[in-house]
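Lab channel / #folding
Pinned by the channel admin:
"Please post every new chain as: sequence first, then the structure tokens as a reply. Keep commentary short and put observations after the output so the thread stays searchable."

First post following the new format, from NK:
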Amino acid sequence: MKRKTINRILAVLVIATIFFGACTKEKSDVRLAPTLATTQVLDIRSDSATVVGFVVAEGDGYTEKGVCYNTATAPTISNSKVAYTGQTTSAAFKVKLSGLAYATKYYARAYATNAAGTIYGEEYSFTTLPVVPTLTTAAITAITGNSAAGGGNVTVIGGAEVTARGVCYGIAHNPTIADGKTSNDKGPGAFVSALTLLKGNTVYFVRAYATNSAGTGYGPEVTFTTLIDMPVVTTTAVTVVTKVSAVSGGEVTYNGGGTISARGLAWGASANPTIAGTVIAGGTGMGIYVSNLTGLTKFTTYHVRAYATNSVGTAYGADVVFTTLSDLRTWNIPGDYVAASYPGSTFADWAPDKSPQVKSTITAPDNLEGYVYMKNASNGWKFATQPNWDGPNYGDGGAGKLDANGGNFSSPAGYYKINVNAGANPMTYTAVATSWGVIGDASPNAWTDETAITYDPTSSTWKGGMTMIAGGFKFRANHSWDYNYGSNSKDANLNAGGDNIAMAFAADYYFTLDLSHPNAYTYSANRWGLIGSATAGGWDSDQNLTWDATNKVLKVTADLIVGEIKFRANDAWDLALGGTVDALTTSGGNLAITAAGNYTITLDLSKATYTCIIKKN
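Reply from TO:
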């Protein structure tokens, strides 16, 4: 053998020795013959592996070489062996061991045989890989229109833990776990699976599955057909509600695998109406349909449910509740107080159509309510049920009762909350003078008492400012919780006895409470600031105005330069005031500062027309 070839072989042996010395392996204590080596095990699979041997003294009469293997240590050629039969172009040779058992530990050694006997190389151990589990698929039972029972049996785990098992199913052959599947614990053995959310009258294909580290194995495929299922129908929201009619309907979104022979709307005064009661037919088949309800009774609560029928039965949509409209009442309150109490308005004394009003609501059509301001020391008034004197008109019947022949009511000055119970016999009323304020843990007096605000006849609103902290507040009158408003909708609308209103920032606020529109009461609470090119913050940052409780104005003292200013609320441009100092408006232009200096600026929001004073100190 050439020296160059020998050197190459020796180099390979050195590299092989270093490589395998760094690997974890199992080996015997027998010292190897110097002319033979088992160098590595390659391409281990579940049923095979490739072992590399190395013979240095190729020309020393070796008649056979190969690899022997066994499940016990120190295998010999009397165990299993595979002889190498390929061409010998180098000292190394590869032998593939086939027909091995999965997940099994084997021991292998290279061997070489000559006339003197057989020598063995170094022993190596390896473990074949596991295989996917083997299992059966159970027959399908308990079939309905939308469910069935199945399962399987993991008979062979495949040499590794079964970490998931169940059945997979779909409407195409050979479903996999990428399709619909159930999860039924883990490990070997039988299991039961519940198949749900199936479609009616549909052919399904089912295979049991089990997963281990080698992958997922599947059982044989079985098939079944679901029964016809119940339909699915939704009820349309009720719209166009009047005193005697409304519009609803439904949509059949699923026929259950059958034919929709009837559909429509069931309705009545009781919850969950059925087709045994009153119905409006809506045709047949899938899709949307509209149902017109007529002949209803005013101010009555009704229930409606869409329905759909196939050969299995009748399904219903959700129960939707609505109430027909009522005869709302609007009464006028004419009197000798009107002109003096509502300056700047079109109201006039003893003119029903030019008077404040009380109104009822849809939910309480016989109960009228409203707020009326009476300025005079003594004020005479009546109820007019029409915007004229055609009647019926009601006066004082004594003891809080109304009388069509009664004289004028007489009330001292005050801001009155007037309520009428027109459903009583005889009809009754109350007129309570109220004085309003702000109460809550965010307000100056906390929940102990309201901090007063002031009524402004020019705007028909209550107004005032105060220093607030973060917290909650409400509007309350007469130091009594009988008269209070919060906001359930968390907006500018008020509700009697409603939720506390959140006050997020500590600052001086200006409040406006508007009770001038019966049953539609609103408020505002704003932080005001000065902004503009003449201010230190320019157009980017406000200088806050503070509340002057003595003069009932918002005020700020600041150094200004030549430029322009405006007032804005809540550090935003949603609400801003400009124009002229004696008539500020939301659409007004910037106010000019023509000379630099220290200024005291006041903002007066107490009247219907907003004004300001810009005074150089």
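NK: The chain is about 5% helix and 50% strand.
TO: also worth noting, Helices lie at 3-21, 338-341.
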